[in-house]
Amino acid sequence: MRRRKETGVDETIVEFQPAKSAFIVCDMWDKHWCRGANERLGPIVPKARSLLDAVRRKGAVIIHAPSDTMDFYRDTPQRLAAMSTPAAEPPAMLEITAPPLPIDDSGGGCDTGDRTLKAWTRQHPGIPIAAEDYITDKGGEVYSILKARNIQTLFILGVHTNMCILNRTFAIKQMTRWGMRPVLIRDLTDSMYNPADRPFVTHEQGTNLVIEYIERYWCPSVTSTELKAALQQTE
Q: Which CATH superfamily includes the segment(s) 17-86+119-233?
């Protein structure tokens, strides 16, 4: 895993235990209001599917969190499983502060100049939802699932790195403040950043700046390639 400190990058080898891990798919919707966001999500989808299929076979918990689409999944077994998990009372939140993001996303971050009010209706169809998975966009339900399944590490993938990945009730900031251990999968994420805005770098550089920010102030990161390699060692 990779973490940032004042002295530089800290790479640590940690044993990957799939049966004690959960993977949450954050807002990988069927369609975003920004064309550029849709185009960049395309290549992430098959890589995410491949990883989720692999870790699921090893006993990892998979939670699908396509925010604002719970009506679409209202009567599915996976949504009902999340809702029926015994509620766990979260602890008092840890006091954690961090500086502002290193990029300006105040304009919405779209780099292709198009916007509609709302486009998504469900999760991207390229990410299958297995019978044993969960569906929820509520932080309390996610926390309860993690406690019920004795999960120690919550891996998070999806979009967008500077927005939902950090700020959803089930995502990095909230879970960290509840004392959980999130880890960002940095090659399976993308930011909402327009290079016409500060700090005036390429979109890829903007995403990397946000990843580095998360590694410094919130949680470590890992790649899907590293996780797959670790899976092979468990065979």
A: Isochorismatase-like (3.40.50.850)
